[in-house]
Amino acid sequence: MTTESKLPPPAGPRPTLLRRRAASFGHAVRGVGAALRTEVHLRLHAAAAAAVLGLGLYCGLQRWEWVAVALSVGAVWCAELLNTAIEAVVDLVSPEYHPLAGRAKDVAAGAVLAMALAALAVGGLVFGPYFFGS
Predict the structure, then answer these.
(1) Mean pLDDT over residues 97-103, rounded?
(2) 35, 76, 80, 122: which one is catalytic?
(3) Range of the structural domain that residue 77 is part of
(4) Which of 20, 22, 39, 63 has the fewest Cβ atoms nearer than 10 Å?
(5) Per the domain annotation, does 30 fall within a domain?
(6) Is 106 annotated as contributing to ligand binding?
(7) Which CATH number goes with the domain that contains 101?
(8) What is the pLDDT of residue 24?
């Protein structure tokens, strides 16, 4: 048993549900910020998202097109963030090389690649007609 578990609970009122949710949101924002500072690929995805946003505004996308673009960008970001988390956990539990650790990291990276290719296809379907006609 750790010493932390022997300590009495902190004095004062318990945080409200709203305060706990706000703290949880803060942790999530901190995690995205940490990933942006440390992951080159996430910064590339951020630049691509900004470019797509500008291109969408320039083309005057319809609502359904914005939905497709937003879901694609969000899915790529989610895949990249999950890949980053998986890599961190694998590095923590397996600091030495292990084939299964390598496989886990490769598969997580493959998920990002698959999602990025799907997003590229969506981008082609949405933006293609604006530049190459129907």
Answers:
(1) 95
(2) 80
(3) 62-129
(4) 63
(5) no
(6) yes
(7) 1.10.287.3610
(8) 84
Was 39 annotated as part of a binding site? yes
What are the tens digits of pLDDT across the range 31-81? 999 999 999 999 999 999 999 999 999 999 999 999 999 999 999 999 999
Asked whether residue 114 carries a pLDDT value surpassing 70, the answer given is yes
Question: What is the number of domains present in the chain?
Answer: 1
Specify whether 65 is catalytic: no
- Is 20 annotated as belonging to a binding site? yes
What is the 3-class SS of the chain, one letter each residue?
Answer: CCHHHHCCCCCCCCCCHHHHHHHHHHHHHHHHHHHHHHCHHHHHHHHHHHHHHHHHHHHCCCHHHHHHHHHHHHHHHHHHHHHHHHHHHHHHHCCCCCHHHHHHHHHHHHHHHHHHHHHHHHHHHHHHHHHHCC
- Supply the pTM of this predicted model: 0.81
| 80 is known to lie in a ligand binding site | yes
